[in-house]
Specification:
It is a single chain. The chain is α+β, with helices and mostly antiparallel strands. The protein folds into three domains: about 110 residues; about 140 residues, Sandwich (Jelly Rolls), CATH 2.60.120.1440; about 70 residues, Phage tail protein beta-alpha-beta fold. The protein is built from nine helices and 18 strands. α3 runs parallel beside α5.
Length: about 325
């Protein structure tokens, strides 16, 4: 009685995994008129499976070896010339499958690599005056971006560094990663950290300022491909860069941390400098009727959590001036 041949046996035969008894079964099966139809069905199913599966280079090599050693050997089964032609047809199909899978696998990997590279997108956050936002980067670092400032950063960090670009003012809480330094580019100044918190003030045509709340911060001046180290700061230290000169200073580390919560510390600042800060925080314009009043110096700590009118009520008697708020204009007499 003829034993039944199912798809599983056919698959084993095509893969060179048949036992001697199964080879004899296949020999008889190949004499049948419906053999080609059933093998066609197996072929379609196998191709569908190859399209869905992830194939390794090792698997492809194994299939090639099996094909070479078994499928092309005419002595693997004694058969008629007609059956030899029949099997050679499937040998050609199987070879096409192997080569197709190899090409498909290579293209798929290439597309994955291209997708991986293309997936890195540069974002730009632009804050108008009066806006303050918190930006969480892909490494879990947090940037508190001030009004009138711009931050450029990637969707994810690749390579050996974490690099961003800042124009304006921000407070940074950098996730620690000694193997992947965090670098902030601000014009010609480069700030490098591995895990720390600090504030940077880097507006165009204004002195650069960095103040450290925790950790260590390394500052360098960049000119083309040349880099000149300026300082390594620790908590409570600051660096100002103006007219190609670096000036080190001492500050209160708590004041630096609290900047993100609206604490504004002015130390011998002119009223005009203070007004510039208020313009960014409150989206207003200051007008000085007498320019000399703008040069008056003040030392004071304020909170930007309150309305601007409350701040002006404090400043006016201290600075001995009068003022008027008209819409978005603050007029200083």
């Amino acid at each position: 009685m003829e034993q039944q041949v199912n798809k599983q046996v056919i698959r084993k035969y095509l893969k060179g995994e048949c036992s001697p008894s199964e080879l004899q079964i296949m020999k008889l099966f190949l004499q049948r008129e419906d053999a080609e139809q059933l093998i066609d069905q197996v072929w379609v199913e196998e191709w569908a499976a190859f399209e869905e599966a992830e194939i390794s280079d090792q698997d492809i090599a194994i299939w090639k070896n099996r094909f070479t050693e078994e499928r092309l050997q005419e002595n693997s089964l004694p058969m008629s010339s007609g059956n030899k032609f029949f099997l050679l047809r499937y040998a050609a199909v199987w070879l096409t499958l192997i080569l197709g899978v190899g090409i498909w696998y290579g293209i798929t990997n290439l597309k994955r690599q291209e997708t991986k590279i293309a997936a890195v997108t540069m974002f730009e956050r632009v804050n108008a005056n009066g806006q303050r936002v918190q930006v969480r980067l892909s490494d879990s670092s947090i940037v508190y971006l001030a009004g009138g400032s711009t931050l450029r950063y990637p969707s994810r960090f690749v390579g050996n560094t974490r690099e961003i670009i800042l124009h304006g003012e921000a407070f940074f809480e950098v996730a620690k990663n000694p193997k992947k330094p965090f670098i902030i580019h601000t014009g010609e100044i480069r700030t490098l950290v591995v895990g720390t918190s600090f504030r940077i003030n880097a507006f165009k045509n204004k002195p650069f300022l960095v103040e450290v709340a925790s950790g260590k911060v390394r500052i360098a001046h960049e000119q083309g491909n040349h880099e000149t180290p300026l300082a390594v700061l620790i908590p409570g230290q600051s660096l100002s860069w103006k007219n190609n000169q670096a000036i080190l200073g001492q500050i209160n580390a708590d004041d630096v941390s609290e900047w993100k919560n609206g604490r504004l510390v002015f130390n011998k600042a002119t009223l005009r400098e203070m007004a510039t800060v208020f313009e960014r925080w409150y989206n207003v314009d200051f007008i000085f009727k007498h320019q000399t009043k703008g040069q008056q110096h003040m030392t004071i700590t304020l909170s930007a959590k309150v309305p601007l009118s409350d701040i002006m009520e404090v400043l006016a008697p201290t600075g001995k001036f009068s003022y008027k708020i008209q819409g978005r204009q603050v007029i200083i007499n």
